[in-house]
Amino acid sequence: MKKTVLFIINPISGDIKKANLPNVINKHLDKNMYEHIIKYSEHAGHATHLAKEAVEKQFDIVVAVGGDGSINEISQALLNTNTALAIIPMGSGNGLASHLKLPIRKPKAAIEVINNSKIEKIDVGTSNYGSFVSCAGIGLEAMAARVYRHQSIRGFFSYLLAIHKSVLFQYRSKNHKIKFQIDEQWREENVYMFTVFNSQYFGYEQGFAPLASLTDGYFDLVLVKGLPAWKIPFLIILGLLKKVHLLKESEFHKVKKIEIEAKKKRIAQLDGDSFIASDKFTIEIKEKALAVLVSKKMKNI
User: Fold this and answer.
1) Which stretch of DSSP H or E encloses residue 263?
2) What is the pLDDT of residue 169?
3) Is 102 helix (H, G, I), strand (E, B) or coil?
């Protein structure tokens, strides 16, 4: 029997026009394997609703056509179900797609992956603010996500500009002390960045956890303790070079659960979507919770 597929297109993700996408899908999707329909998300949260309907109707696959935000919304509806996620990466950062080595902003090639795919079960992060697939945290990257969201231009250089603005703002606000638990041990530190990675990247193939795995049952926690002002440029440069481990204020841990307590509200992020977190932020891994289509050639997830 043919598998049923729902394509959910986010028309505003990234900076690429998507008017021709239905034609590309109709032309290149293997009709001997799949029956498909196409729908468009219209507002925040709509993709989750559409994906839930697909699960209720027992669709085999839901395809996220967009970026990490679209993937996050759709995956929320697919956790622990028999409906698998596929991705046509058309967003800005495309962090999860980069980890899965999917063709970025090449819809024809991404459809060919769907035509020649296998299903893998991957870990997913959950929190008291929602689920995430790639990364979550507070500090520099959360501030950058917030700044980037409000910029009118998308792209890698706009992302660098967001980091630059965030560094200036984050340092003026001073590094806030947080209390957190790792392996049942509580600590209290001034932190500049506190990020758990499930996949390797934030976006644009940038990330501080090159050994992160989507299937090992652990997060890779990257913690950068409070920095003097003169060291902040080194953090940015080492981050772009994927060598943050050379900074003596950095720590790396394999964790399953993180609890964070802070005396004041602060900016946090889940898969690049920033929000204001209250005094408690709890993050936990759920193993093999999401089925994802990847290339048959891919070995290490």
Assistant:
1) none
2) 64
3) coil
Written as six digits, the tokens of 47 are 């993709």
Is the CATH number of domain 130-286 3.30.420.40? no
> Any residues with CB less than 8 A from the CB of 142 and at least 6 apart, and which?
266, 267, 268, 269, 274
Query: Does residue 39 sit in helix, strand or coil?
Result: strand
Nearest to 269 by CA among 91, 175, 148, 182: 148
Q: Give me 203's structure tokens.
A: 């976006």
What CATH class is the domain 3-115?
alpha beta
What is the per-residue pLDDT across 200-232, written as a single tens digit (0 to 9) for each?
A: 988 778 778 888 999 999 999 999 888 777 887
User: Cβ atoms within 10 A of the Cβ of 26, count?
Assistant: 11
Task: Give phi and psi for 60, each to the nearest 5.
Answer: -80, -35
Put residue 109 in one of left, alpha, beta given phi > 0 → left and psi -120 to 50 → alpha.
Answer: alpha
Dist CA 161 CA 168 (whole Å): 11
Domain boundaries, the chain: 3-115, 130-286
Burial class (CB in 10 A: 0-12, 13-18, 19+), 160: middle
Please, how many CA atoms are within 13 Å of residue 240, restricted to the half-sphere of its CB?
11
- The pLDDT mean for the chain works out to 87
What pTM did the predictor assign? 0.89
DSSP string, 43-56: STTHHHHHHHHHHH
Q: pLDDT tens digits for 242-274?
A: 888 889 999 999 999 999 987 777 888 999 888
- pLDDT, one tens digit per residue, over 140-166 is 777 777 666 666 666 666 666 666 666
Token digits of residue 93: 């950062």
Give the residue from 208, 237, 210 showing the smallest Cα distance to 224. 208
8 A C-beta contact, residue 100 and residue 294 = yes
